[in-house]
Amino acid sequence: MKNTKFLVKLNRVGTRGPQYLQSMGKTSVATTSDRKQALVLGKFAAEDAIKSIQNARCTPELIPIEVPA
Asked: Does residue 29 belong to any structural domain of this protein?
């Protein structure tokens, strides 16, 4: 059985490649270019993360992935 989890991909102005959400604190956001180190979230948590980090210089996007249950 597989579950669907989500990565938050960040397309930032001025960076060469995509960045992924690695951790998120109350005042800071850490990103990584390594998809394996990205934070794997449930759908509602990923949507909340996207709402909190949206701004003019960053375009967040949900990336669905299949993980074993």
From this structure: yes
Residue 44: CB atoms within 10 Å: 9
> Quick one: CA dihedral 20, 22, 23, 27, positive or negative?
negative
The predicted model scores a pTM of 0.81
State residue 58's pLDDT score: 81
Q: Does some domain include residue 32?
A: yes
CA quadruple 39, 54, 18, 16: dihedral positive or negative? negative
* Residue 22, CA distances (Å) to 1, 2, 7, 32, 69 in order: 26, 23, 9, 6, 22
Task: Give tens-digit pLDDT for 30-45.
Answer: 889 998 899 999 999 9
Domain count, the chain: 1
Residue 68 in domain: no
